């Protein structure tokens, strides 16, 4: 049994079912300035704030851990020119990541594996290690961050993003579908930062980001289906209302309303 089997709040069967019933997301288009693309452009600005020093640098090695259905691997390959890889521990997750790359006309390497037992040739290799919505599914957050850091070369950047389950999103998720909520460790920005410090990393940036996005809520257990669809429509309307207001007046990220928490940290240089 791998360490992830012992500490994970999920299992491969859960993710296999999750990804096989999910549609592939649209490819990232940062040129689309429509209101519905507001979150994608916000993510782009977040990544730009962290990765600008690498713009134009040749042969940057980038890996996404938990890469199932990733729309970001093609983005990092095409927009940033990175040499991209992805790792996921379920077969369909790997297949979906490969399909996203192929559909975008981008190249990359996808490997099936466990972050707690990485392939030897992937350890200490990457300039940038990214995980989005991964480490909060493990009971020991610092251990999960340490596992991710194994992939970074000395001095490499580890970027971790998670859903903000300590604010409005978490409260709503708990009410709508407690089973999904219970598969997350709720972490605020300070707790996420401290997990990276405990993992021996040097903090570069720690924050909540985006004003709102109720689309991150996931409630497959809500029945009947028509009610589930109605709730999704209400979530979309509420989100678009906030984004429309933000187009006129700046709405700062907050613990209460922001949908995401992010932390960027560096692995120590080899002594």
Keyword list:
single chain; 271 residues; alpha/beta; Rossmann fold; 7-stranded mixed sheet; 10 helices; 7 strands; 38% helix; globular
Description:
- The protein has 271 residues and is of the alpha/beta class.
- The protein has one domain: Rossmann fold, CATH 3.40.50.150.
- Helix content is 38%, strand content 18%.
- It is built from ten helices and seven strands.
- A seven-stranded mixed sheet has the order 3-2-1-4-5-7-6, with helices on both faces.
- The protein is globular.
SS element count, helices: 10
Give the averaged pLDDT, no decimals: 94
What is the CATH-assigned architecture?
Answer: 3-Layer(aba) Sandwich
Q: Give the helix proportion (percent range).
A: 25-40%
Could you spell the SSE succession in H and E letters?
HHHEHEHEEHEHHHEHE
Name the CATH class: Alpha Beta
The global form is globular
Radius of gyration: 18 Å
